[in-house]
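Appendix C: a fully annotated inverse folding record. The material below is reproduced so that readers can follow the format used throughout the book. The structure is listed first as tokens, followed by the designed sequence.
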């Protein structure tokens, strides 16, 4: 049996996934994405888990799709095997929040994987980019779609057309990442954020994620209606009663995640 490419651990109610292909800077293959999807689906189904953190190493979150594997492939090869495709869609369907803790390189498919997460916490040494143009291709897993939504057209065009990298400060300025912290803090910072999320009522966490994702993926009126209906729906939960009672009684809520 081959060694796992993704390390799977837990920290309290947080599922921690670590890409583990150090020799190739965590380059992404079908096998990596399959393992990641299986692990995330298991956490998604596990009542003991409330949120997840996805990380890599200090040198690389992931340096992109595996170029050595791809270099000889034809259109028929990538299309027929749906390279990275099938389980990439499975990652998108994960319902619990996933935070990307990014240190080092997040390039090509690595940047796209980070953007697929719900938000990114970056280390000061993080470098983001879509360098596919330098390989004679273009981003294939959301780079041309999620990057402009995150950083605007001008910067997305700049990055996608020149293939240059941006550092953590530029990524934070342009809205790609939510926080920048020293490299030795990045994993703890992400686990702490995930722990806070995992302490909230699970139904409201799931709905909040769904609603913010709608904002990103749909028109304003459709998103507003979706948000309103989900807000109303949460009044059917015990946790709404508990959360609001706890506030008025000046105590901490004891959420039961139902
Ligand atoms: N695929 C396969 N192997 C990779 C890789 C990748 N994406 N990125 C790095 N590696 C390998 C290198 O070949 C090298 O292996 P060897 O030791 O056997 O030579 C090892 O990882 C270490 O890399 P470097 O020696 O290059 O390390 P560096 O510190 O000098 O440079 C880097 C780091 C700038 C990230 C450089 O490795 C690099 O430019 N990598 C490629 C980045 C890239 O083009 N990514 C896009 C891929 S295409 C894609 O992702 C399409 C998509 O949309 C899904």
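Designed amino acids, in order:
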């Amino acid at each position: 049996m081959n060694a796992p490419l993704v390390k799977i651990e837990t920290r309290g109610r947080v599922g921690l996934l670590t890409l583990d292909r150090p020799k190739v800077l965590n380059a992404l293959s079908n096998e990596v994405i399959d393992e990641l999807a299986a692990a995330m689906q298991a956490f998604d189904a596990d009542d003991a888990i409330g949120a997840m953190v996805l990380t890599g190493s200090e040198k690389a979150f992931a340096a992109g799709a595996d170029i050595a594997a791809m270099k000889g492939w034809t259109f028929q090869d990538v299309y027929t095997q749906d390279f990275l495709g099938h389980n990439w869609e499975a990652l998108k369907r994960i319902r619990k929040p996933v935070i990307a803790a990014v240190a080092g390189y997040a390039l090509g498919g690595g940047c796209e994987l980070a953007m697929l997460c719900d938000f990114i916490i970056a280390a000061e040494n993080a470098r983001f980019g879509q360098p596919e143009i330098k390989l004679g291709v273009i981003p294939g897993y959301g780079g041309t779609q999620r990057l402009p939504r995150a950083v605007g057209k001008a910067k997305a065009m700049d990055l996608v057309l020149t293939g240059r990298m941006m550092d953590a400060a530029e990524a934070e300025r342009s809205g790609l990442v939510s926080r920048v912290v020293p490299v030795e803090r990045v994993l703890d910072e992400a686990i702490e954020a995930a722990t806070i999320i995992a302490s909230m009522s699970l139904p409201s966490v799931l709905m909040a994620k769904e609603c913010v994702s709608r904002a990103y993926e749909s028109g304003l009126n459709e998103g507003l209606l979706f948000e309103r209906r989900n807000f109303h729906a949460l009044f059917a939960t015990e946790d709404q009663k508990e959360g609001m009672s706890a506030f008025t009684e000046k105590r901490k809520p004891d959420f039961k995640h139902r």
